[in-house]
Design brief:
The chain has 241 residues and is of the alpha/beta class. The chain contains 6 helices and 12 strands. It is globular and about 50 Å long.
């Protein structure tokens, strides 16, 4: 099973090692795109069928799932990926035919991390993947952060409230970490998008509320929901315990 650090937020290996990432797509033409080789980062494209990738999958991976597929709906494909222990933690992008609010909502509810409007272009996919990957590979603080009864371990990508683990997806964990590093400060949606290394894509501004909702649910599960506060018209703030 891929750790919930997910597709592209894994630790870097020793100096001189190469990071290999696989982009799986349900579109056969996309799966035939040329490999991207940047020296330290190699990204290959592959096809995913109704039963998932065949064989052993060892690299970090990112899925681009079409809203309409030949044998099933994209929503069902997302649910199957989330149910598969190998990919429950992977990053999934739903590919919509048009920017439909209902389809966006249903995609995120089914378990997709984000969405984009097709048709897919190689450079647009690489830009999206590398935007997150690039922010992940820059040197980051590995020191555990303590904020009252809230503790965050960046190296393990784990948060705890009074010793109880807060179950979060990568985007939500990174949001929590950023907000904990900036407690008692109102953070706008744009600031949160930039903190996650996703600046430049306007779609992410509209998914911030989804990430916040998931983060709030994770905190509520450990009786820490009161920490996250909405400041209407301005953004969100993590109150110091």
């Amino acid at each position: 099973m891929l750790p919930r650090q997910s597709a592209l937020t894994k630790d870097r290996g020793p100096p001189g090692t190469m990071d290999r990432v696989t982009i799986f797509a349900t579109d056969r033409e996309v799966a035939q795109f040329d490999e991207f080789d940047q020296g330290e980062v190699v990204i290959r494209f592959a096809l995913i069928g109704p039963h998932g990738p065949g064989g052993l999958v060892e690299q970090p991976c990112w899925f681009f799932v079409d809203w309409v597929m030949d044998t099933m709906s994209g929503l069902e494909m997302v649910r199957r990926l989330r149910a598969d222990p190998r990919f429950a933690e992977s990053h999934i992008t739903m590919v919509l035919d048009e920017d439909d609010p209902d389809e966006r909502r249903r995609s995120l509810k089914a378990g997709a991390d984000d969405y984009m409007v097709g048709p897919l272009k190689r450079n647009a996919m690489l830009d999206r993947v590398l935007a997150l990957f690039g922010s992940a590979v820059r040197p980051a603080a590995r020191t555990a952060l303590a904020l009252g009864d809230l503790s965050i371990n960046p190296a393990a990508e784990q948060a705890r409230w009074r010793g109880r683990p807060v179950v979060l997806r990568p985007n939500e964990f990174r949001l929590l970490r950023f907000m904990a590093e900036n407690p008692d400060r109102v953070l706008s949606r744009q600031e949160l998008v930039e903190a996650l290394g996703k600046a430049g894509d306007p779609n992410y501004l509209r998914t911030v509320d989804v990430w916040i909702k998931r983060l709030r649910m994770g905190l509520r599960d450990v009786d820490a929901g009161h920490l996250l506060r909405t400041v209407h018209g301005k953004g969100y703030v993590l109150d110091r315990p």
